[in-house]
Design goal:
Elements: H1 26-43, H2 47-54, H3 63-75, H4 87-93, H5 99-114, H6 121-135
GO molecular function: odorant binding
InterPro entries: PBP/GOBP, PBP_GOBP_sf
Signal peptide: 1-17
Length: 143
């Protein structure tokens, strides 16, 4: 089963975000819930830390939120272990209203990070999420 999710561009049930959940497709809603539950269990992150990230407040010293963030990206197969983006999957999942602008933000941020210093996948996915939020806070979606 393909389990897509786009961490920096998604939101589900327990999440707050700037794009209304009513604009999400069924596949995105289902996967978001599944990923959120799996990644909380796997990382032990607090809901309070997730809520801060939903507001675009990223704590660079919180390893659990970084682990959670990385889990969302990789669990979904939106990013693989080599920091390669599954563009077709992201296009499929993004709400039509924000698809073009948010995909551009993701790709631009990905290129910036890829060309930067050598970092772990954990750090790269964390920087990617923060970058996407900073480029388009009005289109931010987070689980």
């Amino acid at each position: 089963m393909n389990k897509p999710i786009i961490f920096a561009v998604l939101c589900i049930g327990v999440a707050s975000c700037f794009v209304p959940e009513t604009e999400f497709g069924i596949k995105l809603l289902k996967l978001g819930k599944e990923a959120h539950e799996k990644c909380i269990e796997e990382t032990g992150v607090t809901q309070a830390a997730i809520e801060r990230a939903k507001q675009g407040k990223f704590d660079d010293d919180d390893i659990q939120i970084k682990d959670y963030n990385n889990c969302l990206w990789t669990f979904s197969k939106a990013i693989n272990k080599n920091f390669e983006i599954n563009v077709e999957l992201i296009k499929e999942l993004l709400p039509a209203k924000i698809r073009d602008v948010q995909l551009k933000a993701i790709m631009d941020c990905h290129e910036e990070i890829k060309e930067g210093p050598i970092l772990s996948l954990l750090e790269k996915t964390y920087l990617l999420s923060a970058c996407v939020f900073n480029k388009n806070p009005e289109n931010w979606i987070y689980f």
